[in-house]
Amino acid sequence: MAKYLLLKHYRGAPAAVNDVPMDQWTPEEISAHVQYMNDFAARLEKTGEFVDGQALAPEGAWVRYDGEGRPPVTDGPFAETKDLIAGWMVIDVDSYERAVELAGELSAAPGAGGKPIHEWLEVRPFYGVQPTITE
Amino acid sequence: MDEVLLRSLTPGVLTVLVRRGADFAAAEDAVQDALVEALRVWAADPPRDAKGWLVTVAWRKFLDATRADTARRRREDRVEEEPAPGPAPAVDDTLQLYFLCAHPSLTPASAVALTLRAVGGLTTRQIAEAYLVPEATMAQRISRAKRTLSGVRFDRPGDVATVLRVLYLVFNEGYSGDVDLAAEAIRLTRQLAARIDHPEVAGLLALMLLHHARRAARTASDGSLVPLAEQDRGRWDTALIAEGVGILQAALARDRLGEFQAQAAIAALHADAPTAEETDWVQIVEWYDELTRLTDSPIVRLNRAVAVGEADGPRAGLAALAALDASLPRHAAVAAYLHERDGDPATAARLYAEAAHKAPNLAERDHLTRQAARLNARRCS
């Protein structure tokens, strides 16, 4: 088994095919979308492939150390940042092909007009564990 | 086996161990071990005297742990001098336990975790699941909390206000897992109300019951939020409402008003309205005025602006809102609502989208996005 991160971006990903902001959808289309996402996670729990799913609020800030005895420096909220992560799902699957298949399904979530969003999701493999048998 | 009954025995068992000379931290660990064992064996072999069983097993766990720890030999000597475990004394120190677990030296998260374990009798795993953190993290939080309390005397009276804040947090920020934290908070507040005669304890209990009564109506079948005005009032739990109102009326009659009684009074006025249109908004505004005097909280002023909007019209609500800081949580959502009522759907839609962007949780974000979508769809068609 191998773990993959499916990353969804608020900004920074290539434009989706059905790229309409959510507040321009109808309430029914929003409900259908939320339902699709919930069903998708529930299905992966049943197949034993779901690890974690989290959503991030859009507001955030950059923070860094500023030296001994000084408070950290903050910069933000970063309105102008090019890439903004909206959330992720971690899956534990048998192969890269399966990870891509599932990301494809997630990207088919319905949007405006009830049609798939075709949104770009980022698929990133986790580093695995060092195998016990190496020779 | 009735798990709630088992949990209700926890504080009594813990205080027996403390009374016999065990320090709080070790006693609490021993009781937790006994609870885990009870969950394991009681289903097949329930004891006749549940509390006596727990005291015996917890005391044995405590002795085992103390003996195993050779570095603590002096305490062992003292323990050996203690009388053999007998029947549990009837004296109830549960109230002291509430004060200790909500001690002001603890962070809110620690006080919540410790209260749920030592007073509530939940296992570390259940608490961890409820707050969506790993079990090891919750275990550390609890043992750090107990270290913080190591110098605190058990028999010192505490401040009931800190206990109420902890119980309020459990009720209000309970997430998920196999334990219903809202119900657990109600159980713990009931237990507290039975031990201390205090109008704010009654006020908090009434507040919880009145909100819990509306729970089934608060979410639609697809999981989305249903605002108060649109809830199916037939799904409100009338027995809980009647109980909450009764407790509140008795508390208010004492004439020692506090913020929980005032909040409960507002909840009671909502519960009392057969339809949203029949809500007594004028009285609700008066209660918000009381709450503002009691707490001076900007969140209360924000909610008051909504009530003013209903009592005196959206323009009055917007005027009340104008005096408040726009960076307040949910400010944009309130503004959106009042602008829609004022017949300005374009501004309302823009503000709902802004509110969704700032929403503190997913359910609210989806709800606010739907509101924006509803107004946008209507304007386009």
TrEMBL record, chain A:
> Residue ranges of the YCII-related domain?
17-107
Gene3D superfamilies, sorted: Dimeric alpha+beta barrel
Q: Which InterPro entries match?
A: Dimeric_a/b-barrel, YCII
**Pfam families reported in the protein's UniProt record:** YCII
Q: Which residues form the signal peptide?
A: none
Family assignment?
Answer: Belongs to the YciI family.
Designated name of the protein = YCII-related domain-containing protein
From TrEMBL, chain B:
Q: Which family does it belong to?
A: Belongs to the sigma-70 factor family. ECF subfamily.
Per UniProt, residues of the RNA polymerase sigma factor 70 region 4 type domain are: 98-149
Biological processes, Gene Ontology terms: DNA-templated transcription initiation
The record's keywords, sorted A to Z, are:
Sigma factor, Transcription, Transcription regulation
Which organism does this record belong to? Streptomyces diastatochromogenes
- The record places domain RNA polymerase sigma-70 region at 6-69
Listed transmembrane segments = none
Write down the InterPro entries for this protein, in alphabetical order. Answer: DUF6596, RNA_pol_sigma70_r2, RNA_pol_sigma70_r4_t2, RNA_pol_sigma_r2, RNA_pol_sigma_r3/r4-like, WH-like_DNA-bd_sf
Q: Where is the DUF6596 domain?
A: 161-251
Q: Give the molecular function GO annotations.
A: DNA binding; sigma factor activity
- The name of this protein is RNA polymerase subunit sigma-24
- Record-linked PANTHER family: BLL6612 PROTEIN, BLL6612 PROTEIN-RELATED
